[in-house]
């Protein structure tokens, strides 16, 4: 299967090359998957923008959002993107323990982000602002919640990857997996920048 | 624990004799299948060879079998509707039942018949056409199939459990919202589509990567077979369109499940947003299914005219421009929404523009046939029949695109006739042509041509008898989704004719079933691997293709490379020697796609009934399957050279014995 790919490089194709080519194929597919994810977020942003003034007598963005918490979330997530970058650098330097260490730091920052977000959501629900309150809040909880869900999936993924790295070390396969995960993580960071701007900053403006 | 269930009849649909009959026959069929598999000791075979396979050829066959079953069910729905409408004031079906039937007919025909038949043909033909050993991600490919399969099962089960959805094939809110549709039918709709939709998206990614990255050496993009081009175009549309469907279904579900207000009438919801979103997916969707049919026609017309396809590059250009334009026409489905003259004008013009590349294609096919030595085989007959049918369907489409006139045509039988003409005349005819064309390649034996021609004529005559009267019914004011009409309307005679046509198509389908059964019994073996004297790489290998497809990588020099090779051989030229055999790297079978899709089914079923005790463990099951896959490193093996040699020699011996 992968041999026809290997031929493009006119190389001998032992097991190693086959794996190398399969891995580049998988990275390419992941890029395409991320593009489809961009469309999912694009739709959710569009829905939010359409509905954001439909508060139906419920709380408005201005009344609801507490910026200090949001700014803390932002800095935590941006820092986690930086530490995931450090993890990749450690991987390229061939330092497995350092790689796992930076992934662990990234994991903790991601978990802190999720904790803050969930707390924010719980506070809102206690104030009577739920997904069923108004079109605006349906759009808000779904958009921000989908981002949070992505981050949570990333956290589970990160644990699995750390276990695999501990068992197998830095191989071509684990290397590709770390690179794909870090791509995913940076992508979520970019999405968050848009959430911060479109939802929070424009909401309290 | 059972939450909203108060009695047995809340769960099983009871009280309708037709549905009771269906329930009994489903139960009998299931007992019969279990019995046969047990008596002939075939469980292990089923598990090893089919349920856990990751081979694209087998996945393709499973897609096709499932889609033919769905064609049967969607067809029965259609005939029930035609029976109800055959005469005025008919009491064969009551209004509620009729609503369910037109809903399930539409969903099944588009999403569970056309899509899987299309994916089946992708799987069968694309890797063979581009000289690849499999698709880019064989595991994901199997997962796509099982997600489709269990999504389709979840949708179909609503027929006997809980009640079918009844808000139309696109489930417009507010009718599909909880306030107006409190049953579980609409939940089945959402989760059936959602689960199979994830599979479709994955298939889209899979084939884009396969086509872009796995072509045989020498096959530049502009040397690809036209069907492969059409698949690339279709899959690019899938990548952009299906995420929108995923979001739309998720939001509708949140409305129904958590009381959100995306599309509700109160608390700031906006139903028109749903209609925009569903058509942003839905319009590209019809091109997603029709463009591969165009690809099939291009292959068939070149093969059976024994000529190179006329206007290769204009065909590619037409396909890609259709793919792009398809995203800018969605609002023509609701000119009557009231978005204003400027918006309607934009969408009217963009819709008419699509007719241009389509017209280019029609001329290309005609010029390919011009002065060709045409063989009137079944695939070619469907292709020739498609051309006039699609021209009329396309012209009525342009009529519908004229926004002011559309206020008259909108939601009338004129529209019904139009889209059946493009979807049957384009998609169904195209996939039938493809099925007949690649059948010998799939199974290694030929279909009976004589019975195929009977089927062809019944389908074709039936089609015109059924749908031509509907244009006039529409102009006479008959609207769609009408379950009965008054004698005084004067629609009786045309409806009766239309019903007769519907049944003629049903007879055509029976002929096709007979044709397949007959051909299995008399088994006319294709020993050459090149049954139709074909032009592209899939015909250069034995039928059915060996597990690894190509023993050595083909070296491609021309468009229609296999045809050119045959010409060179006929001229007595020597072909470059084939490279030595090497062990072939293959993916191992896996049970995870099948098991994971069962968990998806459980998740969907749990959410349909609001049974979290079922949904949560199923969700954990899905996650566990994904983790198990991530931890699997031993997922490939090598086919040794000896085995390849034996397989190739056996195929050569079979060929030599007959020529």
From TrEMBL, chain A:
Q: Is Methyltransferase given among the entry's keywords?
A: no
Q: Which domain of life is it from?
A: Bacteria
Q: Where in the cell is it found?
A: Cell membrane
Q: How does it sit in the membrane?
A: Multi-pass membrane protein
Record has Kinase as a keyword:
no
Indicate the transmembrane segments per the record: 28-51, 71-92, 99-116, 136-163, 183-203
Pfam families (alphabetical) = COX3
Residue ranges of the Heme-copper oxidase subunit III family profile domain?
28-204
* NCBIfam families, sorted: CyoC
Similarity comment text for this entry: Belongs to the cytochrome c oxidase subunit 3 family.
Q: Oligomeric state and partners?
A: Heterooctamer of two A chains, two B chains, two C chains and two D chains.
Task: State the protein's purpose.
Answer: Cytochrome bo(3) ubiquinol terminal oxidase is the component of the aerobic respiratory chain of E.coli that predominates when cells are grown at high aeration. Has proton pump activity across the membrane in addition to electron transfer, pumping 2 protons/electron.
- Protein name listed in UniProt: Cytochrome bo(3) ubiquinol oxidase subunit 3
Q: Which organism is it from?
A: Paenibacillus terricola
The taxonomy runs: Bacteria, Bacillati, Bacillota, Bacilli, Bacillales
Originating gene = cyoC
Automatic annotation (TrEMBL), chain B:
Q: Which protein are we looking at?
A: Cbb3-type cytochrome c oxidase subunit I
Q: Does the keyword Membrane apply?
A: yes
Similarity comment: family membership: Belongs to the heme-copper respiratory oxidase family.
The portions of this protein that span the membrane are 20-40, 61-81, 101-126, 138-161, 188-209, 229-254, 274-297, 309-331, 343-367, 379-403, 415-439, 451-473, 493-514, 591-609
Give the Cytochrome oxidase subunit I profile domain ranges: 39-557
Name the Pfam families for this protein: COX1
Spell out the InterPro entries in the cross-references: Cyt_c_oxase-like_su1_dom, Cyt_c_oxase-like_su1_sf, Cyt_C_Oxase_1
- Signal peptide as annotated in the record: none
Source organism: Paenibacillus terricola
């Amino acid at each position: 299967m992968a041999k026809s790919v290997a031929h493009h490089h006119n190389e001998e194709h032992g097991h190693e090359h086959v794996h190398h080519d399969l891995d580049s194929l998988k990275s390419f597919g992941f890029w395409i998957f991320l593009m489809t994810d961009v469309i999912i977020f694009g739709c959710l942003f569009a829905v939010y923008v359409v509905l954001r003034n439909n508060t139906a007598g419920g709380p408005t963005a201005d009344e609801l959002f507490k910026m200090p918490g949001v700014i803390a979330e932002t800095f935590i997530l941006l820092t986690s993107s930086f530490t995931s970058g450090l993890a990749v650098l450690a991987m390229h330097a061939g330092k497995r323990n350092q790689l796992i260490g930076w992934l662990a730091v990234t994991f903790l920052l991601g978990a802190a982000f999720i904790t803050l977000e969930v707390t924010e959501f719980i506070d809102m629900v206690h104030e009577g602002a739920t997904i069923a309150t108004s079109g605006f809040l349906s759009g808000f909880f779904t958009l921000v919640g989908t981002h949070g869900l992505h981050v949570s999936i990333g956290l589970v993924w990160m644990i699995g990857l750390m276990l695999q790295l501990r068992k197998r070390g830095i191989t071509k396969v684990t290397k590709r997996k770390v690179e794909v995960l870090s791509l995913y993580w940076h992508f979520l960071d970019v999405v968050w920048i848009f959430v911060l701007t479109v939802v929070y900053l424009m909401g309290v403006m | 624990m059972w939450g909203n269930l108060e009695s047995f009849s809340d769960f099983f649909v009871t009280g309708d004799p037709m549905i009771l009959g269906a329930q009994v026959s489903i139960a009998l069929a299931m007992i019969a299948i279990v019995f046969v598999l047990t008596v002939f000791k075939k469980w292990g075979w089923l598990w090893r060879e089919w349920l856990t396979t990751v081979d694209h050829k087998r996945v393709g066959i499973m897609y096709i079998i499932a889609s033919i079953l769905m064609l049967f069910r969607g067809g029965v729905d259609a005939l029930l509707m035609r029976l109800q409408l055959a005469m005025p004031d008919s009491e064969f079906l009551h209004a509620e039942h009729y609503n369910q039937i037109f809903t399930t007919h539409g969903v099944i025909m588009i999403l569970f018949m056309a899509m899987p038949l299309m994916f089946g043909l992708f799987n069968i033909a694309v890797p063979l056409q581009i000289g690849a050993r499999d698709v880019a991600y064989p595991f994901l490919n199997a997962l796509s199939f099982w997600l489709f399969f269990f999504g389709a099962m979840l949708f179909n089960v609503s027929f006997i459990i809980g009640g079918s959805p009844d808000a139309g094939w696109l489930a417009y809110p507010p009718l599909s919202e909880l306030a107006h549709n409190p049953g579980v039918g609409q939940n089945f709709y959402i989760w059936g589509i959602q689960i199979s939709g994830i599979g479709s998206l994955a298939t889209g990614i899979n084939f884009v990567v396969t086509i872009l990255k796995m072509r045989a050496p020498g096959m530049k993009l502009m040397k690809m077979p036209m069907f492969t081009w059409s698949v690339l175009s279709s899959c690019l549309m899938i990548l952009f369109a299906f995420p929108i469907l995923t979001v739309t279904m998720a939001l509708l579900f949140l409305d129904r499940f958590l009381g959100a207000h995306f599309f509700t009438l109160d608390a700031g919801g906006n139903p028109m947003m749903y209609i925009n979103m569903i058509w942003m997916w839905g319009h590209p969707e019809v091109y997603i299914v029709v463009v591969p049919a165009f690809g099939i026609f291009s292959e068939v017309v070149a093969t059976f005219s024994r000529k190179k396809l006329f206007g290769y590059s204009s065909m590619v250009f037409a396909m890609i421009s259709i793919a792009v334009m398809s995203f800018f026409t969605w609002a023509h489905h609701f000119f009557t929404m009231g978005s204003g003259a400027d918006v309607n004008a934009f969408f009217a013009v963009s819709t008419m523009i699509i007719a241009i590349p389509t017209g280019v294609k029609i001329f290309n096919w005609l010029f390919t046939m011009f002065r060709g030595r045409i063989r009137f085989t079944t695939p070619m007959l469907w292709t020739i029949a498609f051309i006039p049918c699609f021209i009329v369907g396309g012209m009525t489409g342009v009529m519908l695109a004229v926004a002011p006139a559309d206020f008259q045509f909108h939601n009338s039988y004129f529209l019904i006739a139009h889209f059946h003409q493009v979807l049957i005349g384009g998609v169904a005819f195209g996939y039938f042509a493809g099925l007949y064309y690649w059948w010998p390649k799939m199974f290694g034996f030929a279909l009976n041509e004589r019975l195929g021609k009977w089927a062809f004529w019944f389908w074709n005559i039936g089609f015109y008898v059924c749908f031509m009267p509907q244009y006039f019914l529409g102009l006479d004011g008959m609207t769609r989704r009408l379950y009965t009409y008054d004698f005084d309307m004067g629609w009786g005679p045309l409806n009766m004719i239309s019903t007769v046509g519907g049944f003629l198509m049903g007879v055509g389908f029976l002929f096709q079933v007979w044709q397949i059964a007959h051909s299995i019994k008399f088994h006319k073996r294709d020993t050459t691997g090149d049954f139709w004297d074909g032009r592209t790489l899939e015909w250069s290998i034995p039928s059915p293709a060996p597990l690894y497809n190509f023993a050595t990588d083909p070296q491609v020099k021309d468009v229609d490379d296999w045809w050119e090779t045959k010409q060179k051989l006929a001229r007595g030229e020597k072909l470059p020697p084939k490279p030595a055999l090497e062990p072939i790297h293959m993916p191992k079978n896996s049970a995870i796609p099948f098991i994971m899709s069962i968990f998806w089914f459980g998740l969907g079923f749990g959410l349909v009934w609001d049974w979290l005790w079922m949904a949560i463990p199923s969700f954990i099951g899905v996650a566990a399957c994904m983790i198990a896959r991530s931890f699997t490193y031993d997922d490939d093996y090598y086919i040794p050279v000896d085995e390849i040699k034996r397989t190739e020699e056996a195929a050569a011996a079979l060929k030599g014995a007959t020529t």
